[in-house]
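Re: the request from the purification team.
They wanted to know what the chain is likely to look like in 3D before they choose a buffer screen. I agreed to run a prediction and write the result into the notebook, where they can find it.
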Amino acid sequence: MSGHSKWATIKHKKGAQDQARGKLFAKLIRQVEVAAREGGGDASSNATLRTMFAKAREASVPLDTIERAIKRGTGELEGVRYEAVSYEGYASSGVAIIVECLTDNRNRTGADVRSCFSKNGGAMAEPGAVAWQFERKGQLELPRESDEDEVTLAALEAGAEDVTDNGDTWLITTGPSELAAVRAGLEAAGFKVLSAELGLVPSSTIEIDSENDARKILKLIDALEDNDDVQNVYANFDIPDEIIETLEG
């Protein structure tokens, strides 16, 4: 899903410079809170919380803000109770999409997600209709200037499954439970880890060679990601870099 990854990288660079930063903070805080509620507030024994904590710190979320979210999750502080819910659907060209949300109102979130699909050329699908096309994996990104052979050796020794060229970065894929160990192994070997998170990886991708279709797909993705309740959007499209660059321009 190199096209999607490149698009996400472009948006990340832009987002760090505008109000999207505040929206990102809010989403990360929700993820920390839910991880603490479901697995406890001790990051040493709660792998999901450990991953979410690291992700929040990488985004420069203040430590005291993260700690308060953990306390709300464990019940030490009062707060809104969020629940995880996911939706499935299709974009242009039959691209499969999974939308993961954290919400305090299922009806509101479901209606908002459905509206995003219908207004942007997509369609909702029944649960399970597209989920079988994805598998949960750990993914880490390292700077491209790191030597490929050295990165590959260190990653595989730490328990990674694969290392691929992701344009500006090396993308390392792991099993869900190996993410923390692989990150620790890479950092111990002297590599800088740009990002590390659990996500859904498509088993195959649909190549989009039409600029018009690419624009429609990315417009839908953007609309979904702009919703406060939406935490992650996964899709099985691959848009060539030249089309991404044209759309960026």
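For the purification team: DSSP finds nine helices and ten strands in the chain.
Please add any questions underneath this entry.
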